[in-house]
Amino acid sequence: xxxxxxxxxxxxxxxxxxxxxxxxxxxxxxxxxxxxxxxxxxxxxxxxxxxxxxxxxxxxxxxxxxxxxxxxxxxxxxxxxxxxxxxxxxxxxxxxxxxxxxxxxxxxxxxxxxxxxxxxxxxxxxxxxxxxxxxxxxxxxxxxxxxxxxxxxxxxxxxxxxxxxxxxxxxxxxxxxxxxxxxxxxxxxxxxxxxxxxxxxxxxxxxxxxxxxxxxxxxxxxxxxxxxxxxxxxxxxxxxxxxxxxxxxxxxxxxxxxxxxxxxxxxxxxxxxxxxxxxxxxxxxxxxxxxxxxxxxxxxxxxxxxxxxxxxxxxxxxxxxxxxxxxxxxxxxxxxxxxxxxxxxxxxxxxxxxxxxx
Length: 358
Fold this sequence. Notes:
This protein is 39% helix and 12% strand. With 358 residues, it is an alpha/beta fold. It has a domain at 38-171: TIM Barrel, CATH 3.20.20. Helix 1 (18-34) packs parallel to helix 2 and helix 8 (215-224) packs across helix 13. The longest helix has 27 residues, at 329-355.
């Protein structure tokens, strides 16, 4: 997203000041008290948050937890290159869960995830993941993988599974109708990403139980069986988070930076506003409306309760804003129908077996 439409991040501080961290912690405490929350989740994100160093990470954790009586589920999302022994000691001491970004096998990962000198990061990340599993396995939250159609889906899944993550989160590359993602031609009904994911699903589903959870598959299965989603990528659950930028600005999900300059902005800041101000911000309210917030095309679709219109950022089209289906509409429909056929068939067989012979 830092290479797409919004470059306002260039004017942001590279790291959050002590004062901004403190006021953010106070705003979290204020919000938790006002809404009688017993638990809140805070994710340190970036950029690369571990660049702050073990001392700063530990100080942030202490400040956040000291400010509020609510239980703070603290997590960090990292590229994995800085998970040194000292950093792992800090993360363990402060009970900070760790999500790592890895895009599959060594050669595949290193096409996109490399250092400024061009050297790939896979070897360093692999060492970090082995260190994490060996010395702090209880902190391992999972691996995020951004899909590349040029990578073999089974090889990608198996390369990630090698590190025994508790959860794999396959993510669609950011893009929209105006700036389509790689390999996604909005003018066709092809479903290259749906087919890629369906191939992984069959491999994963056939090997279950015993493998890692795959968030997208588990959520879709939950939805087709009548449940509610817990993520914003599928389903109709209202958005339940806000981003605090390094200068204290309150923003919507950072994926919106892929749409246009300023798309994630709210005009609010922890220095002048509580989180309740964000709850009534028109752009955020629009993402709390469930089916009523979808485009007419989506509402007329039989899959809309499961698909949920897809990720909000992927609906953008210049001229009509976000009142569109996802640019991945055909891919999501392909995957949902594929999973539904498999799961509904298994449910029918289990129901027949439970009845026994007539």
